[in-house]
């Protein structure tokens, strides 16, 4: 079974890694163990899954080529369509496997997300999920404080896109690697959570650590622009206007 996982992982990486994606394996049991039952995934504890991240290179390597070559569905976000397209290719390449794909934007009928993306990234060792409980002397009182994942190479310049589950693949041998704790001091953690919760629009929380790459100016402008205006921003409106259906 270990060799089977190696082969599966290679097939996924062959599709995604040159397009600005990263994948990290996990057992479903690691995820379920840190969450209340209402959020558990309905698989055996040793079930293999992969969390899929996009890093800054995805914009040029996957997203822009996707825009040029594929019709858009007006009701869906173009980036979500791009991610779905590339993961559908992964699914097709693994036709001999049962594959469940959950996207970060999908909600259940009870309005809960299909999976908690930041928790999945943390237990898979992909990015450290900094939360209020990671601050020893809490300065926020009654305020609601949301946590945020920080990637050891990209800081906040990345996104958690999907969870790919293989219900028939059991990996009891898989060792768990903890995420790299890159925001180590209490002062930095407070600064990070303050910036993320109260100043997220200025992007500054993403630079809480030194990063090897961040979003290009074009990419930052794209994500800061209202969705209805984004295609025009990329000078693709003329190309796409007859394709939207």
TrEMBL record:
Q: Name one GO biological process term.
A: cobalamin metabolic process
Q: Which transformation does this protein catalyse, written as a reaction?
A: apo-[alkylcobalamin reductase] + an R-cob(III)alamin + glutathione = cob(I)alamin-[alkylcobalamin reductase] + an S-substituted glutathione + H(+); apo-[alkylcobalamin reductase] + methylcob(III)alamin + glutathione = S-methyl glutathione + cob(I)alamin-[alkylcobalamin reductase] + H(+); 2 cob(II)alamin-[cyanocobalamin reductase] + 2 hydrogen cyanide + NADP(+) = 2 cyanocob(III)alamin + 2 apo-[cyanocobalamin reductase] + NADPH + H(+); apo-[alkylcobalamin reductase] + adenosylcob(III)alamin + glutathione = S-adenosylglutathione + cob(I)alamin-[alkylcobalamin reductase] + H(+)
A Pfam family annotated for this chain is MMACHC
| A Gene Ontology term for the protein's cellular component | cytoplasm
Q: Where in the cell is it found?
A: Cytoplasm
Keywords, comma-separated and alphabetical: Cobalamin, Cobalt, Cytoplasm, FAD, Flavoprotein, FMN, NADP, Oxidoreductase
Please give the InterPro entries that the UniProt record associates with this protein: MMACHC (IPR032037)
Q: Which GO terms describe its molecular function?
A: cobalamin binding; cyanocobalamin reductase (cyanide-eliminating) (NADP+) activity; demethylase activity; FAD binding
The cofactor required is: FMN; FAD
- Which segment of the chain is annotated as a signal peptide? none
Enzyme Commission code(s) on record: 1.16.1.6, 2.5.1.151
User: Has the keyword NADP been applied to this entry?
Assistant: yes
According to its UniProt record, which protein family does this protein belong to? Belongs to the MMACHC family.
What is the official name of this protein in its record? Answer: Cyanocobalamin reductase / alkylcobalamin dealkylase
């Amino acid at each position: 079974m270990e060799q089977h996982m190696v082969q599966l992982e290679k097939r996924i990486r062959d599709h995604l890694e040159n397009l600005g994606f990263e994948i990290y394996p996990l057992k479903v049991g690691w995820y379920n163990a840190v969450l209340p039952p209402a959020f558990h995934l309905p698989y055996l504890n040793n079930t293999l899954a992969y969390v899929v991240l996009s890093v800054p290179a995805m914009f040029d390597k996957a997203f822009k080529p996707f825009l040029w070559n594929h019709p858009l569905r007006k009701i869906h976000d173009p980036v979500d369509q791009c991610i779905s397209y590339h993961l559908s290719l992964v699914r097709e390449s693994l036709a001999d496997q049962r594959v469940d794909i959950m996207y970060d934007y999908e909600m259940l009928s009870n309005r809960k997300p299909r999976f908690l993306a930041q928790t999945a990234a943390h237990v898979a060792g992909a990015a450290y999920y900094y939360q209020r409980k990671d601050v020893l002397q809490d300065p926020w009182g009654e305020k609601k404080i949301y946590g945020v994942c920080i990637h050891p190479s990209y800081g906040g310049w990345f996104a958690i896109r999907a969870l790919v589950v293989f219900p028939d693949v059991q990996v009891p041998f898989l060792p768990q690697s903890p995420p790299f704790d890159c925001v180590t001091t209490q002062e930095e953690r407070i600064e990070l959570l303050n910036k993320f919760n109260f100043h997220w629009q200025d992007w500054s929380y993403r630079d809480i650590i030194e990063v090897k790459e961040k979003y290009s100016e074009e990419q930052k402008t794209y994500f800061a622009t209202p969705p209805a205006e984004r295609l025009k921003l990329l000078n693709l409106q003329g190309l796409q206007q007859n394709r939207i259906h």
